[in-house]
Design goal:
The protein has about 500 residues and is α/β, with parallel strands linked by helices. It contains 14 helices and 6 strands. Helix 2 packs across helix 8, helix 3 crosses helix 6 and helix 11 packs parallel to helix 14. It is globular and about 85 Å long.
Length: about 500
């Protein structure tokens, strides 16, 4: 069993505020700490327990690959083991420890108050050769290359910020507390955040991100040599998806589980989570990689099995370095603006296919206003992008360039709910954020997904309350969509 936590964000003793030396802290008994004791065990120990459990059979998706194990749900034991008793001894202790972030900056030459950030955590469960040290190795190599460029006379247009986070595995504490401390400055000045938690899980690039980056990712991966013999990383990526009958690589929005979470879901800053994952065409049943969060995540495993020759490390660093330079040096920020409303439309279309749209209409008769507002946002973003392509940056004055960049940079912040999603104050992005029921996976319109979850199991009173929440949330989404269209309408270049 792997260790780790992904549903928590930050220090639970200072919710919503930075955990600095002078911060007020809740008493431990008042904090919302997990209440269920947990003890990670290996599969040999798990077999001894699982083979004795009776009850109903587990769903197919819950069944593992241990031979001789029926995979039942319990809670009772099989008849021949009814006299057995199980005692779980845990040795968790509640302690307060100091954790550190290490932040390095390369000051921008033209726009020093605009930040392009790269981050990776350095704490690990066990030896952590892949998670997080493959990402740390990438960041150190990227820093070395940038330093070499500086000695040759290069300076970035915008400030580069390199972040080594502490205490990620305990609930994204280092990055969350830093974001909470600098939230106003980040929302005003951050161009993007690039996260590289585990650079190497396998040979296939995985670049989950804000839709604003999708064109840039495609372009940059076409510039980087392949890591498994192909001409470029993009060609290998394309060949991987061709096996799955896709005409082009599938672009993903962000899930949680790493240090981009507070930047993306709390601040609304465009983020990219970069790494190389397992080839699912060959190993479809493996979710991450076999040694994930275990004592087997060693340098020997990495050197001999996962990345002999460290070509994948090199590919990850090349993609990261080019991305940083592209967003640090481009005069007009290279966002793919039109992909943002398109991804939203795809998400609403998915609700239609799943039958959820009809359910939402039956609850809220003004649901159509959300779709109309999205159509208007799509139109405004198309006009904005078209005019921007017609203008040459060298023909624009510096203040106009600054204004255009700020409009694009802050667009996603329009979709930030100040109070957070229903029941989740730390998750404030109303369009692209993880579901409450699967924090690793990406999700679009997570508030809708969460509010519809298990509605059929509610009592009449609970259902009425939930329906009111749905009405309010759909109204909020409609207003934000209208604001996004208005945000792009005020484009004084036209």
């Amino acid at each position: 069993m792997q260790r780790g936590t992904t549903n928590l964000m930050g220090d639970l003793l200072t919710p919503g505020w930075p955990s600095t030396a002078h911060a007020y802290r809740l008493k431990i008994e008042d904090a919302k700490l997990p209440k269920i004791p947990c003890q990670p065990i290996g599969y040999n120990d798990a077999r001894v327990l699982l083979e004795k459990i009776g009850g109903a059979p587990a769903p197919g998706a819950w069944k593992g690959g241990l031979t001789g194990v029926a995979y039942n749900l319990g809670p009772e034991l099989l008849d021949q083991y009814r006299s057995y008793r199980l005692r779980l001894n845990t040795h968790n202790t509640l302690q307060v420890h100091r954790s550190y972030n290490v932040i390095a900056t390369i000051r921008g030459d033209v726009e020093p108050d605009r930040y392009v950030l790269l981050g990776n955590h350095r704490d690990a469960w066990g030896y952590g050769a892949a998670d997080p040290s493959s990402g740390t190795a990438q960041m150190l190599e990227t820093a070395r290359v940038l330093g070499q460029l500086i000695t040759e006379g290069w300076r970035p247009r915008r400030t580069l910020v390199l972040c080594s986070w502490g205490a990620e595995e305990y609930g994204l504490i280092g990055s969350t507390e830093w974001v909470e401390e600098h939230v106003n400055k980040l929302q005003e000045r951050a161009v993007m955040y690039l996260n590289t938690d585990t650079c190497v899980r396998g040979p296939i690039i995985n670049a989950a991100s804000s839709p604003l980056f999708w064109d840039s990712i495609t372009m940059i991966t076409k510039m980087v040599p392949g890591v498994r013999g192909g001409a470029t990383v993009y060609e290998e990526w394309e060949a991987y998806h061709a096996v799955r009958n896709r005409t082009s690589p599938e672009m993903e929005t962000l899930g949680s589980g790493s240090d981009h979470a507070s930047f993306a879901f709390y601040c609304g800053i465009p983020c990219l989570n970069l790494g190389f994952r397992i080839d699912k065409n060959k190993h479809d049943i493996i979710s991450k990689y076999p040694s994930y969060h275990t004592g087997y995540d060693t340098f020997y495993m990495m050197d001999q099995n996962m990345d002999p020759g460290f070509r994948i490390h090199q590919g990850c660093s090349r993609v990261a370095a080019l991305t940083l330079r592209y967003f640090a040096d481009s005069v007009l920020l290279p966002y793919s603006l039109e992909h943002l409303p398109k991804a939203m439309k795809d998400a609403l279309d998915a609700l239609r296919k799943g039958g959820k749209r009809d359910k939402l209409i039956s609850i809220y008769d003004k649901y159509y206003l959300l779709e109309e507002s999205l159509m208007n946002f799509t139109y405004k973003s198309t006009i904005f992008s078209r005019v921007l392509k017609e203008k040459r940056s060298e023909n624009l004055d510096p203040l106009t360039i600054r204004a255009i960049n700020d409009q694009m940079m802050k667009l996603e912040q329009v979709f930030i709910l100040p109070a957070g999603l229903p029941g989740r104050p730390q998750i404030r992005h109303a369009v692209f954020a993880p579901s409450q029921f699967d924090s690793y996976a990406s999700s679009s319109f997570p508030g809708i997904t969460d509010l519809l979850y298990n509605m059929e199991k509610l009592t009449d009173i609970e259902r009425q309350k939930r329906e009111e929440q749905i009405k309010r949330h759909l109204s909020d989404l409609t207003i934000m969509m209208q604001r996004a269209a208005s945000f792009l309408k005020d484009f004084h270049v036209i």
